């Protein structure tokens, strides 16, 4: 299979009729969108978007662009994944210029790979635009790095969500290795299992944990706790999805490296790419 052409020209080939762009919308702050994502948003006839795509990001699209919500929450899906795949194919076959917006990065727990496979099976042209994944955004805004020479020489992104019922089928021994950072996406419902398994495989009850709710947004809330107190902390603080669970010694740096909370965005619906760039000072 020939490799795809890589272009560094920001004035890239326009989104064509019948083409789908699978675009990472980042973790919430519209200032974290890539320039390419903004450009494609401005061109789209249709937006197909997830629950975690912020309203400020959606406001950057053209006002006349049709919007299709396909968000998923625990046991509550607007559409099944197969239905979402079929929607993308149908819109493309109708000749629409489609932007499929996904929170974070589409290829990190975003099921973007499944959607790309469906488009290929139906002969639909597509492109993929990466985004800043939640772990990167939440860590930076939470005041700690994911890696640090003194604390963590590796970082692992893990799904904390079971497929169906039953335990998480993870390599707990590897995840409990010292000198690394482990980030659990969608892990609140399985916090007791995460806490127990990591302690059973060698991490101490005092091992630091950061819980970051709605990271990079004005509603961001962060709580520092430990593995032993993880479940109690979640219940006491009333934390809700989307909340990342970050396990690692790097969390101890949160007090010294913290930065101001994100400010409320002031984007205007249908704002041009040029004005959006000025507003977010890209």
Structural summary, described in words:
With 282 residues, this protein is α/β, with parallel strands linked by helices. It has 2 domains: 20-133 and 263-280, Tetrapyrrole methylase, N-terminal domain (Cobalt-precorrin-4 Transmethylase, domain 1, 3-Layer(aba) Sandwich), CATH 3.40.1010; 144-257, Methyltransferase, Cobalt-precorrin-4 Transmethylase, Domain 2 (2-Layer Sandwich), CATH 3.30.950. Helix 3 packs across helix 4 (112-121). The chain has a 5-stranded parallel β-sheet with strand order 3-2-6-1-7, sandwiched between helices. The chain contains 10 helices and 12 strands. The model has no long low-confidence stretch (mean pLDDT 89). InterPro entries: 4pyrrol_Mease, 4pyrrol_Methylase_sf, 4pyrrole_Mease_sub1, 4pyrrole_Mease_sub2, CobA/CysG_C, Siro_Cobalamin_biosynth, Uropor_MeTrfase_CS. Belongs to the precorrin methyltransferase family. GO terms for molecular function: lyase activity; oxidoreductase activity; uroporphyrin-III C-methyltransferase activity.
């Amino acid at each position: 299979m020939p490799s795809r052409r890589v272009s560094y020209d920001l004035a890239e080939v326009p989104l064509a009729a019948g083409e789908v762009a699978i675009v990472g919308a980042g973790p919430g702050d519209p200032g974290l969108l890539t320039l390419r994502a903004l450009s494609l948003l401005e061109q789209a006839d249709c937006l197909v978007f997830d629950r975690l795509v912020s309203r400020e990001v959606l406001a950057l699209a053209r006002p006349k662009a049709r919007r299709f919500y396909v968000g998923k929450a625990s046991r509550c899906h607007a559409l099944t994944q197969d239905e979402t795949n079929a929607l993308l194919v149908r819109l493309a076959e109708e000749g629409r210029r489609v932007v499929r917006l996904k929170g974070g990065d589409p290829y990190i727990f975003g099921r973007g790979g499944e959607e790309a496979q469906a488009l290929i099976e139906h002969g639909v042209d597509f492109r993929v635009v990466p985004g800043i994944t939640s772990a990167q955004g939440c860590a930076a805004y939470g005041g700690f790095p994911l890696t640090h020479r003194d604390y963590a020489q590796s970082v692992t992104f893990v799904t904390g969500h079971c497929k169906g019922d039953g335990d998480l089928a993870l390599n707990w021994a590897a995840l409990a290795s010292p000198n690394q950072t482990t980030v659990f996406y969608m892990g609140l419902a399985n916090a007791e299992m995460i806490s127990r398994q990591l302690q059973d495989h060698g991490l101490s009850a005092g091992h630091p944990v950061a819980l970051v709710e709605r990271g990079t947004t004005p509603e961001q809330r962060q709580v520092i706790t430990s593995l032993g107190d993880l479940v109690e902390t979640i219940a006491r603080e009333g934390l809700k999805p989307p909340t990342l669970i970050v396990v690692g010694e790097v969390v101890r740096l949160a007090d010294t490296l913290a930065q101001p909370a994100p400010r409320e965005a002031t984007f205007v619906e249908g704002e041009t790419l040029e004005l959006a760039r000025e507003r977010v000072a890209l």
